[in-house]
Structures are given as structure tokens and as C-alpha cells.
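testing teh design pipeline on a random one, pls ignore if ur not involved
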């Protein structure tokens, strides 16, 4: 495995607003050659971070999206015994070479890449609790053994592993010790302005003000089950632009407690009902 004498650095991109703390975290992981574990609310750009780091560093991006049924072994390789059995029944000559039935996983592809790559292991907390521990040896040694072919696969370059978690379950301490950790805090108003400017640079200032007022007030509503995220704000702004909504219209709906096109911001009936109750309370108060 080759190492470079000086680690590359991430300084953000024109499509991704990275805070100074986040840039420091990415560069720390590059320097230490450790996985970068990223946590934060859903919709705060954890997955997009990996895409933009790969773009900024000019590295290929390999993505491994984790499900509840995903096993660590699948990231290394899988042996397709069913296909081999079928081919043997059909008399296919390729059954003589078991390598024809070894399917390379994301980490194998990363290890054999001619160039350093960025590997995204997305939503690791969806898998079984043993999943992270099952990868410890391979992450530490940057190699693994293929028992069917009796070969050892070693990394030509150490990939940058970016691992995301939505905090659905705790990760093992042994795994956490091997990572550099960063929590993406929810953007404040000024940072959110910068994020919106990247996606909608021509948005009128008064519309942006009204939209942000509504958005942050909604996030602070007591009893809300799921607060709207950055990605939902951007979707909502897209709809507001498509409808030609004015700042006055946005403010008027917000004053009635239910935002325009609220379905872009709220994702369950409990929160919709909560806003309906708040709207009713507001109307009753105004009548007195």
C-alpha cells in the first residue's frame, strides 16, 4: 500500500458550503488516515459531503448504501454459489474457475483502484450492531483474505472512508476509537443563507427573509415530531419559486401558523394536525 508524504486538503467546493469545523474534520481524517464518521440530522448534507470531497480532491467515489440486511462481508466480496450450481447443471465450462463467481464488493474495488478513492459507507447505523466490528480488521490492515481463491487483497492506496450515521443506534466503542468523529450541527441563519445562495443565487432578498423566518419558526414549534431539514427547505424554496410566491404571501400563511405548501416541510400527519391546532388557537385569539 502506497502512502503520500503530504496529505491533500479539502477546502470546500462551489456547490457545498462547509463550515471551518467540517473542513478541519475532513483534513484531520486525511492526515491521520482514519475513517471519518459523520453524524447529524437527516438532510444536513452528510451524503453530499462525500460526493463533494471526492470532487474537490479529484478522486473517484465509491458508494456503499447500508440496509438493515447488509452484512460486512458484502463490502469485501460475495461468492455466487447459486450461479455456479446452475452453470454446472448446464455444463458450462466456466464453472472450472471459481473466480468467475466471486463478486467484488465496494472495499475490494477501492483497494484495487489505481488511484486513491473516497468510499462512502452511508447510514452504517441501519445495519446489525455487529456490522461495524466485522470491518475492524480490514479497515486497520487494509487487506482481507478471499478464502475461495486463497488470495489476499491488499490496498494499493488507503482510501478515505466517509461513514455516515443518523444516530439510530449506538456504534461499538472499538469501532469509534478508529474513527475521527464530526457532528454536523444544524446550520444557523447566516450559514443557511449561504447554502440557499449556492442553489438559488437569484432569489429575492425579501422572499428569502420570509422563507427563513417561516422555516426557523417552524423548527422551533413545540411538539413537532420531525423538524424540517436543510434539504426540505431547498425543496420548499423550489416550489415557492415555481408558484411565484411573494414575501407577503409567505408571511401571511406563516401568521396563520400553516406555511404555504407545508407538505414540502412536514412529513407526517401528527405535525400537520399540530399546526392545524396552532392555527385554530391563533384564530380564536385574534377574535377576542
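output:
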Amino acid at each position: 500500500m502506497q502512502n503520500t508524504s503530504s496529505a491533500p486538503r479539502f477546502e470546500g467546493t462551489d456547490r457545498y458550503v462547509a463550515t471551518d469545523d467540517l473542513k478541519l474534520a475532513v483534513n484531520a481524517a486525511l492526515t491521520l488516515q482514519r475513517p471519518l464518521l459523520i453524524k447529524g440530522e437527516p438532510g444536513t448534507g452528510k451524503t453530499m459531503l462525500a460526493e463533494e470531497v471526492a470532487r474537490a480532491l479529484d478522486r473517484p467515489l465509491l458508494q456503499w448504501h447500508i440496509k438493515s440486511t447488509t452484512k460486512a462481508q458484502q463490502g469485501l466480496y460475495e461468492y455466487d454459489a447459486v450461479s455456479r450450481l446452475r452453470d454446472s447443471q448446464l455444463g458450462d465450462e466456466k464453472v472450472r474457475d471459481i473466480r468467475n463467481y466471486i463478486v467484488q464488493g465496494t472495499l475490494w474495488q477501492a483497494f484495487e483502484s489505481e488511484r486513491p478513492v473516497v468510499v462512502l459507507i452511508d447510514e452504517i447505523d441501519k445495519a446489525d450492531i455487529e456490522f461495524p466490528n466485522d470491518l475492524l480488521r480490514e479497515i486497520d490492515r487494509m487487506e482481507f483474505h478471499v478464502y475461495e481463491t486463497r488470495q489476499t487483497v491488499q490496498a494499493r492506496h488507503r482510501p478515505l472512508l466517509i461513514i455516515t450515521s443518523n444516530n439510530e443506534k449506538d456504534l461499538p466503542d472499538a469501532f469509534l476509537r478508529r474513527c475521527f468523529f464530526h457532528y454536523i450541527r444544524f446550520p444557523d441563519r447566516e450559514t443557511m443563507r449561504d447554502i440557499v445562495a449556492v442553489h438559488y443565487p437569484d432569489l429575492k432578498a425579501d422572499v428569502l427573509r420570509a422563507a427563513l423566518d417561516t422555516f426557523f419558526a417552524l423548527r422551533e414549534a413545540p411538539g413537532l415530531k420531525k423538524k424540517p431539514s436543510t434539504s426540505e427547505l431547498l425543496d420548499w424554496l423550489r416550489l415557492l419559486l415555481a408558484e411565484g410566491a411573494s414575501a407577503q404571501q409567505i408571511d401571511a400563511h406563516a401568521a396563520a401558523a400553516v406555511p404555504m405548501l407545508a407538505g414540502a416541510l412536514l412529513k407526517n400527519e401528527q405535525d400537520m394536525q399540530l399546526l392545524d391546532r396552532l392555527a385554530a388557537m391563533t384564530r380564536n385569539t385574534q377574535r377576542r
